[in-house]
Protein: Amino acid permease
Organism: Halosegnis longus
Amino acid sequence: MSDEELAKDLGPFAALTIGVGTMIGAGIFVLPRQAITDAGSFAVVSFVLGGVIALFTAFSASELGTAMPKSGGAYYYVNRALGPFFGSIAGWSNWLGLAFASAFYMVGFGRYIQNIIGVTGSLELGIISIAWVKIIGLFGAALFTFVNYVGAKETGKLQNVIVAILVVILAAFTILGTTQANVANLPAATGYGPMFATTGLIFVSYLGFVQITSVAEEIKEPGKNLPRAIIGSVVIVTVIYALVLIVMSAAVEPGFIAALSEQQIAVVEVGRLIFWPLGTALLIGGLLATASSANASILASSRINFAMGRDRIVTPDLNEIHDRYGTPYKSIAITGGLILVFILLANVETLSTLSSVLHLVIYALLNVALIVMREADVPEYQPSYTVPLYPFTPIVGAIVSLALIYFIDPRVIAIGAAFVVFAGLWYLFYARSRTTRSGVLGDWIRSRSDELPDAAVSAAASVEPDANDYRVMVPLANPNTERDLIKLGAALAKHHGGTLDAVHIVTVPDQTDLQYASEHLEDFDDDPGALLERARVDADELGVPIETHTVISHRGFEEVFDAATTHEADTVVMGWGGDSHGSPGRIESAYDEVMQKLPCDFIVMKDRGFDPSRVLVPTAGGPDSELSAAVARILRDAYDSEVTLLHVADDEEAGRTFLEGWAEENGLSDATLRIETGDVETAIERAAQDATLLSIGATEQGLLSRLVSDSLTLDVIDDLDCTVLLTETAHDRSLRDRLFGSR
């Protein structure tokens, strides 16, 4: 689905709540016992250090988010800047990192359930013994996978309520604990090595702040409020964690926490000593925190899969939407299966640190992505917020993210490295032949191949995508013209060895919420899916691969341009119903003509029955008539069409010389040549009487010129009886040319 124009109705506080809500979760309710046992009083420093490392990346995420407000978050930024090789590493690391985090949350969930119901030990199944905490975690993971599978809409609102409850409980714990805290109770620090290792263990507590960038388009004044939300949420959460750790350590006798068993939960036991009901509140809070964190991670993972499928890093089949529930059920099911396996195979510390390792890799790449976007001077990269102290901030952010990995258990590092290697090999042996979009870094290196070392150029070339995925997008609206548009699109796609992309744009009133429209599509479309299903059947008959999408938008024709950009179309084939496009003689509307560039080649069909047996191509030269010639050439090869070229000239001999050369240049030397003199429009009408299809380039006459004069192209189309294809090539003309014409 293409990007919709969403209302900017999220204020600064709402955006901040999203950030805090993604991080106030299971980490603080599960890990303090291990952190304090390993690092002593330096456990507080570990949580603060984790927040500082996250803060460096938060600066970079803020700039990237204001410049590229796209779904996919960190994965999208890395893929766009560094290319699909590193995009594969970022995508897989994000996906698996979230799965490890979810497994960690579910084991924590099991511990809280254990404390509530009092069950301990293991379940003996012959030679297999499974701890009850893992059995409970497995049931919890299956439950939340199912919740995401069926798409319960209430979970989003419930998440906000849970976050509010957790903040209140932790605030009460801090305030009440302060009354009993004694600095003398703080345990001795165990050294810097254990402190850094503990930072790696607890870094899972800082995952998720980048998710704020996914709602950047809905935030009021995003240039100001998006950075405040991302950076502010990291700072607030760091302060909360530090206060909780200080109070927890100082409110009990030295050695109390270290003496707790693995089944006992430190924050709950300390809460009971401070104020007995507070322990119960913390028990409930921890249960809610682990549950909500797991649910949010599973939900986020499906979005990562969607972005990877869209870029063909993984198969787009993972994005298949359930007919009844409207969820990417395959992606969710696979993620759920991975979580179950991880719960069975690993302990809490391994799950936590593996998630940290993979996310630290992502954060390092994200900081590098920012540097690449800045140094490559990408024209469309125009952030409304910039990181302070550039390039110091992103460089330090990348270095400290990777440096922290060094202090984590070497066995965990080896496993994380294996996943990173797997992601790289996955790209080289699977995705490279399927994905098509290169990154800014690769483009920059190629553009300077004469200046850079051969080794750098060769390395960049070795990971460039090599897929030939020519995409022909066909917007569909009218069942009566669907088959003819698909036939034409199929001929183009087959010629280029590419793919058809059928898009059904459903327009809803401005007053209608897009989310509501997506859930009640039958109210706005008489037969949802029927048009795209017919397109799939027709494409299968024509032997062309096809993808189908439904776009729900407040706009109609204008949405075609956004969809063409989002789907990275090479050519758009669309129907023409009267003057619906709003700009006689051109593809664009009058507004779009002045404000935008044409994102790709466009072919607009005035459909009077698709019969390509006799094709007429009028030409006076120029890129648009060259596209008309290319279409005629493709139709000739696909349908054995008879092609006639028409040129209207003052001098017949000069006209023939021009047309013979033009035909040779455009691969139509076998076409019939027709030279006419006199009125151009009359000549075209006369020649078209013998044609079944006319392929003609759009006029390059400017907007202001056409407002005070008739458009030749429009008059011709209205007067002819045959089908007309109006072609226009992708362009980025100056404002002067748009207003007054380039020729």
The mean pLDDT is 82. The longest strand covers residues 499-507. The longest helix spans residues 276-310.
